[in-house]
């Protein structure tokens, strides 16, 4: 099985071996990115998340004959450019094209409908985020941006975040490095 997204808002599930589409669904906005929740006994590897140009994030269940909407929420005011589940299946992170990073608590082992907003961080100077990856232990994310910087951001925990009034956390600890191209 493979899943693709497109600028027309189409999400399509493919039979990879037969090279044929199984089913598809179209939503408003350009679908920019997707990720599949790592397989567990509960989710069976049949949950994916899709980020859209409208700032909306859709969580979809891959049924036998169709895609089913499991959850939908507006994570950003600008296009979502990256979505990524942590390897431990406890966190979803979304990134927008203006340097915002939003963390959501999830549970890929039992509560598949859990998408609790935890906090939002904004990278200095609002660079466009070009990629993000979790480390193997789900304790940090690495974020690359179009300003040439790479950021290492520790995973926030609910115990360390006060989000009663706002999800925005300022001055969150992170390390950053400037990547420079070698000249020949």
Structure write-up:
The chain has strands at residues 2-5, 10-15, 20-26, 31-36, 47-52, 56-62, 67-74, 80-85, 91-96, 100-106, 115-122, 129-134, 140-145, 149-154, 175-178. By secondary structure, the protein is mostly beta strands. It has a single domain, classed as 7 Propeller (Methylamine Dehydrogenase, Chain H). β6 (56-62) and β7 form a beta hairpin. The mean pLDDT is 91.
In the sheet with the most strands, the strands line up as 4-5-6-7
In DSSP terms (H or I, runs of 4 or more residues), the helix count works out at 0
H and E string: EEEEEEEEEEEEEEE
Give a count of the beta strands, DSSP E runs of length 2 or more. 15
Unreliable sequence segments:
none
Structural class: mainly beta
What is the alpha-carbon Rg in Å?
17 Å
Give me the CATH fold name: Methylamine Dehydrogenase, Chain H
Write the layout of secondary structure elements.
Blueprint: E1 2-5, E2 10-15, E3 20-26, E4 31-36, E5 47-52, E6 56-62, E7 67-74, E8 80-85, E9 91-96, E10 100-106, E11 115-122, E12 129-134, E13 140-145, E14 149-154, E15 175-178
